[in-house]
Sugar ABC transporter permease (Haloferax profundi), 311 residues
Amino acid sequence: MSVVDSAVEKATDNPVVNKEDLPLLLVLPGLFVFLAFMLFPVMYLVYLSFTNAEPATLFQGKEQWVGLANYVTVLTDGQFWNSMWVTWLFVATSVALKVLVGIGVGLVVTGARVRGKRLMRALIIIPLGLPGIFTITIWRGIFSSAEFGLANQLLRSAGLGSVAWLSERWMAFIAYNVTEAWLAYPFMVIITVSALQDVSEELHEAAMIDGAGFFARFLHVTLPSIKRPVLFASILTAAASFQQFLIPYVFNQGGPSRTNELLIVYGYREAFRFQKYGEGAAIMLVAVLVIGAFMMLNVWKGRLADGVDDA
């Protein structure tokens, strides 16, 4: 008998412990860890957002209560709305790119005529095993504005001129998207491949008998069958894109001139560069509320919770 089984048996035999309360007692340790490492930091962040906290007053109880002043300052700051717009644009473009790449690669590695599928699937998930900061640093070198940057070398080999990737706003934005797609496409491929394997072959065969070609079968058979899993994965990866910090910060700190400053980078800069912890906390809480509302709306609209027991 294991230690856990022995402890459960003793707790069950204990007349003081009600059997109906045993499940609650078993989850108490995990609940304590959650409260210590998740709920307390969030509640403290909420508190800081209503104060004028700065490095000299943090954790010393000397910060002053300012009410909604931080939220008013943030919501009337033009840089906040620029960051919000750029962030949602980044979410839209990066998710679209990740979905296209994920479905495209998924169709390739599940194709009946493709050989070496296991090897290809193993190679596809390699980016998941690499540290994010390492991969992002490599991509920063690829998109270097210098002549030796790999992207510029490819452009010159094609007879085109070099591009100042990280010094021009939209070139840097494209570099963000490509890097984000590289980091997240293995996740999309895993979900897509799992969904594709559940598509009924009988439906494909019936469509082929009716004379449907590859694209017709994809639009009317494959896509409806994988829609819900891909939508679920898209919502998760959209949340990850919304919270992206490392790519813009490592590339050019949201530049040039803060034009590509995503919302999380903006909050970080306000808190740690300008030492306005109260405003930084307010920005982060606004980001949490926005992404939370976005995910709930998409789960509801996409009917992804259908069939879940409400009890």
In short: Residues 70-302 form a domain with the MetI-like fold fold (CATH 1.10.3720.10).
